[in-house]
Amino acid sequence: MQPVASSPPQVFIAHSKDDKEGELFFTKLLGAAGLKQYWYPYTEGVLPPHAPGIRKAIDASAAVFVLLSKGMEQGHTRPWIGFEVGVGFALKRPVWVFEPVGESIAVPVPFATGYVQRVEALTTARTFPYTDVVQSVLTGEIVVDPNSTVLFLAKCMEADCSATFLAHVLNPTTARCPVCRRPGTIGRLSQANGLLGVKLTEWTW
Ligand SMILES: [Zn+2]
Which of 10, 64, 131, 155 could crosslink 36 through cysteines, CB 3.0-4.6 Å? Predict the structure, then answer.
């Protein structure tokens, strides 16, 4: 996976236009990290077809961040999220899922490469524990410390899923696998399997 050459890198935000809280949160977070962000302007009268514009925007982005919110569970937002994630996968972009720690959103994200259980509100963006994580995702320079609890390699323990992804978890008992969305399924891979310490750019798809 080769991040696109762009300085600063751009991240494509897959979101529900009704998620104003999430929009404010990530505008602040990514702004503090000095990153460009692309929000597809559904609310500004952009006429269909939407798919070509979305594909072009993801092609120009280093990663896709999926902001899970209740508004994604129903209506026409959900298939568009699936489309954006699929384009991200096809273009070999990292797909990171962000979920508020107090919520459980019933939207599976196939091929998620990262899962972040985030705090509900962002007050001090510059000391935010995963500002560094966000930056390193986009530059492809991410290195997982085997002893880190901030970011670790994880695997879904459900045999019929077995998804592997990087994870930042605030409450392990409520964290859900981003792919199958079942609770209590995230396991932390041990050093014995030789997978710890790899760079994101060496991630096996
Ligand atoms: Zn799973």
Answer: 10
**157 Cα: distance to centroid of ligand 1 (angstroms):** 7
What are the residue ranges spanned by the domains of the chain? Answer: 10-140+165-170
Beta bridge partner(s), residue 65: 13, 96
Residue of 32, 83, 40 lying closest to 61 (CA atoms): 40
Distance 50 CA to ligand 1 centre (A): 30
The Cα 62–Cα 174 span in angstroms is 29
Contact 108, 85 (CB under 8 A): no
Tokens at 63, concatenated:
């990663």
Q: b/e map of 107-143 (b: 16 or more CB within 10 Å)?
A: bbbeebbbbbbbeeebeeeeebebbebbbbbbbbebe
pLDDT surpassing 70 at residue 145: no
36 CA distance to ligand 1 middle (Å): 31
Quick one: fold of 10-140+165-170? Rossmann fold (3.40.50)
Identify whether the C-beta of residue 16 lies closer than 8 Å to the C-beta of residue 72.
yes
Q: Which residues surround ligand 1, an ion (CB under 5 A)?
A: 156, 158, 161, 163, 177, 179-180
Give pLDDT tens digits for 23-81: 988 888 888 777 889 998 776 667 778 889 999 999 999 899 999 999 889 878 888 89
DSSP state of 21: H
